[in-house]
Structure formats: structure tokens, C-alpha cells
Amino acid sequence: MPATVNVAVVYYSSTGTIARIADAMATAATEAGAHVRLRKVRELAPQAAIDSNPAWAANADATKDLPEAEPDDMVWADAVIFGSPTRYGNVSAQLKQFIDTLGGLWAEGRLADKVYSGFTASSTAHGGQESTLLALYNTVHHFGGILVAPGYTDPSKFVDGNPYGTSHVSGQGDLPVGDQTLQATKVQAERVVRVARALKEGGLTGGA
């Protein structure tokens, strides 16, 4: 019987694009046979800033009942898929803040030997998608994690063109997540689950 794989999808989203991809990633991982926790990270922006942007306010309301990520989610997971919009070519402060709370687990070696992957979005095609994912993956190296990017492992990856992770160009919020991004999400989630299962069955990875 195949090993049970626990996948945590941990993300930050302001106006909802990353939230939509995170939801699709969680669905695809579930369909691939994983147990999934979908978790947003804590918002750091003041309420006035959120209220000033209708899309931001709408996403905050739509996800208000979604559990916030906790360090225990990292312990539980065999694989973690992080999501963040680009912020000047880097991950968002909100996701970075969550990662910065994991020092205790890192010191105990409890973040090592897990599978990690990531996804992102930007306003334009050259708005920092690759550098954001590469910056995120620097953290994986420090964790002692096992990086599983989608690569060009499926014909569809030659269409969306990003081997680092699922990415979406959102414009000014007027370019919704479509079939190309959803297909990339499916390829990535399935690969993460498949590799994590193989590693777990081989005795390398393990959750709590």
C-alpha cells in the first residue's frame, strides 16, 4: 500500500491570485492521494491598507476562516509548498515572517529531509517570478530540505515556460488564473506528492 503523504500548502496572498493558486495546489495534491493542510500566513498590513484596495479587502474576507499557518504544520508535513507574490523580486514580508518563526524547529533539525516547492505571481511577465522562487529556495537549502521544482518534466511546462515553479502574470488584477496556470499547478503538486511518497517509502522523510 502506498505511503501516506502529508502536504502543507503555506501561502500569503493580498488580492487573491496566490490564494486561488494555493487552493488549486491543495486540490491537486489531494487528488494525487496526499493528506493536505491549506494554510495562510498571518497578515502584517494594517487594516487601513487592506480596506484601501477592494480586491485585497475581498480576499481577506473570503479567507477569514482559513486557518493560519503554525510551526506544527511544518512538523506534520512530509512536503511543504510555499506560495508568495513577488515583492521586488523577493518573497512577501508576511511569508518571510512565518519562516522566521521556524528557528527553533530548524535548530532541532526538524525541517530537514522534507520536500519543498514553491509558486508565485507578479504583475508583469518579468516582474521577478524567477528571482522570487530562487530566493525562497535559498531557505530550503538552509533547512536541509529536498527541493522538488517542476522542471520541464511534462509537455505543458514548455508552454508555461517556468521550471522553477508555478507562476502567474496577474496584470493589475485583471488577468485571472486560467487553464495554463492550473495545469502547471497540477503538474507541480503531483510531482511533489510522487517524490515525497518515494522518499517516505524509502525511509528518508517523515512528518510528526
Please characterize this protein's 3D structure.
This protein has 208 residues and is α/β, with parallel strands linked by helices. It has a single domain (3-200), classed as Rossmann fold (3-Layer(aba) Sandwich), CATH 3.40.50.360. It contains 9 helices and 6 strands. It has helices at residues 17-31, 47-51, 54-62, 71-76, 93-100, 103-107, 129-143, 157-160, 179-201, and strands spanning 6-11, 35-40, 79-85, 115-122, 146-147, 167-169. Strands 1, 2, 3, 4, 5 and 6 form a 6-stranded parallel β-sheet that branches. Helix 7 (129-143) links the parallel strand 4 and strand 5 (146-147). The protein is globular and about 50 Å long. The two termini are 20 Å apart. GO terms for molecular function: FMN binding; NAD(P)H dehydrogenase (quinone) activity. One of its GO terms (cellular component) is membrane.
Keyword list:
208 residues; alpha/beta; 43% helix; oxidoreductase; Rossmann fold; six-stranded parallel sheet; 9 helices; Flavoprotein-like_sf; FMN binding
Helical content (DSSP H or I, runs of 4+): 40-55%
The assigned structural class equals alpha/beta
Rg? 16 Å
Total of DSSP H or I helical runs spanning 4+ residues:
9
Largest sheet at a glance? 6 strands, parallel
CATH class: Alpha Beta
Write the CATH homologous superfamily: Flavodoxin domain
Which fold name fills CATH's third level, the topology?
A: Rossmann fold
Task: Spell out the helices and strands N to C.
Answer: EHEHHHEHHEHEHEH
Total number of beta strands: 6
The total tally of domains equals 1
Described by the principal axes of the CA atoms, the overall outline is: globular
What would CATH call the architecture?
3-Layer(aba) Sandwich
Enzyme class: oxidoreductase
GO molecular function, one term: NAD(P)H dehydrogenase (quinone) activity
Pfam families: FMN_red
GO cellular component, one term: membrane
